[in-house]
Prior knowledge:
This protein is mostly helical. Helix content is 71%, strand content 2%. The mean pLDDT is 88.
Amino acid sequence: MKKHIPNSITCCNLICGCIAIHFAMGGALPLALLFIVLGAVFDFFDGFTARLLGVSSPIGKELDSLADVVTFGVAPASMAFTLLSNISCSAGGRCPMAPYFPYAAFLIAAFSALRLAKFNLDTRQSHSFIGLPTPANALFWGSLSVSLTSMPILPAPLVVRSVLLLLILLSCWIMVSEVPMFALKFKHYGWRGNGIRYSFVLLSAAVVVVSALLNAVSLAPAVIVVLYVLASLLTQHKSTEENEA
């Protein structure tokens, strides 16, 4: 019986992803983001439960990836599609391709699937990541979509649309790139070797507090993901300099 518990939790992740897609396509982006976050919680606990019960299995690994494609690939892509559709309506313009720009959002789903497939085969990612993890990318797009759609008046919609299209390409690239990303996995709790992790956690907490004071909590996850990428790049640059010294 206990061998089915982790897979049941994974299915809860999948269901959250499906509900998130439903809300995203219906324009209820805050609810879509909520179910992506719930999916991330289930995604954490399915692996944790499998290790705790000692019932890891190949089917569990495959099911986990399939659920992640939905929750952290298709769901954020649907949110970005709705966001771009709303912006395209307000942006107007004479570009004949403008109505098709929102469909670029589904590149997020395609590259998320590719990222997850690579992760399953890459033995280098047991203690850290190579490329941006799909849950982080999903939180970035979910957070950004909610924040922008909640603005009563969006300044320079044509510029915002162009920036979003560039961000889609950038986020897709960084998911499948060879850029090393640190993981919040602690082998011990001392500062040495964990400085970047503790610093990131403290900085993330500060971002949440400041965003709450500014009444912009929905933007906090996007800012935290950007800080995560920058911190990973800084750590890699510092490591490269030390190796060359």
